[in-house]
Predict the structure.
Amino acid sequence: MRPIKLAAFGLAAAAVVLLACGGRAAEDGQIVSVAARDFASAHLSRKGLDLLMEKNGRIYLVASPGQIAALAALHVAYDIETPRFVQAAGQGLSADGGVNGAYHSTLELETDLRTLERDHPGLASLAEIGETLEKRKIYALKISDNAAVDEGEPAVLFAGCHHAREWISVEVPFLFGKYLLENYALSQEVRDLVDASEIWIVPIANPDGLEYSINVYRYWRKNRRANADGTYGVDINRNYGYAWGFDDLGSSRQQGSDVYRGTGPFSEPETAAIRGLFLAHDFRAMISFHSFAQDILGPWGYTTDAAPTDAELEAVAGTMAGLIAAVRGTVYLYGQGSRLLYLTNGDAVDWTYSLAGAPSYTIELSPVDIDHGGFFNDEAAIGAIFEETLPAMLYLTRYGIDHPLPVRPRRLVRREQPGPPPARKPKLAAVPSSAPVR
Ligand code: 0X9
Ligand code: CA
Ligand code: ZN
């Protein structure tokens, strides 16, 4: 069964005992599972829980002690799954526990990006595009011929780690940058791409959150904003400025929620940094890497209505899925994010797409589900996950070069600022467990 990761279900009723716990997966949270029918009959989809997936008739979620107590109070039977999960998938942690093994910390990434820049003068240029609340730099590596010069070439963005616990999403864009630089002299294909474009790599969009995930709480998702109510974190992938706060299904107004959208569009330094980068160049395509599910998700996230260039989005996604499958058979489903996975509003791809229709995708990397490791990818799998996505990244770069967009800013959209709530009541996110677009 496909993982559904319903984390984006919003909050309808405020006076619910679970909400009193802030919908917050506390640092000492547990993975618990409940029967899907109990989940439905207790209306748990509306409680702002941190949902991971559905499998074999059970819904898996991360719950704080208070939330577990609330489940008991509601007479919902639950199983504690944490030991099984960690046992099945804990190989990603290094022996010394405090650091994240072969995965990058923010400091390790900074070092490696500087090394790439130093070793490839002229082709790589490291930019600081923002600074986080905890004063960490957000880095963007630009790869192009004459990288230090703004030649106004077509640009493509590959970003990772909007969500702190999705460690593999750092490694794939980083390794793509490394691959381009190390193969420039060896591969005609790489040389042609790099010469004709600007390839921008932002491996860690959420450095504060990543450090928190490494050092304090492995399941941390958001940034580390100190919210007014004492909770922490804004979901960076709900804080972008297109259809921000469109409804309470695709994001939450509850500060403690794992899908809290923040106080306003681009209220967070992380989204402001990406916004500044994106608006400063001729971006024609982008991928925002996440994990896990093996999905390629295009706009729109905020509505199940089709995007204006739906056919193009689907064709490009289908080509990428085919290229991934061709490497060693790994199946990535593809389609519109709101239909294939769930509703989101204020996510990165809706905003980048809204500007001028640049093909924009969330790619949920491997594994396919929690039984294959969930957020914990074995260190040994990093290389293979990168290799099977490489042809898709090369293809999207070529696509961007070959497909100019209408003169910007031409908005495909009604508004960037939040408006009044929609008159109609949005449908609950449809979560087909087996309805791939193929
Ligand atoms: O919820 C998200 O931000 C993404 N999934 S994750 O499990 N990595 O958190 C999905 C965003 C893609 N857009 C839509 N599903 N609409
Ligand atoms: Ca150039
Ligand atoms: Zn994510």
Notes: The first strand starts at residue 30 and ends at 35.
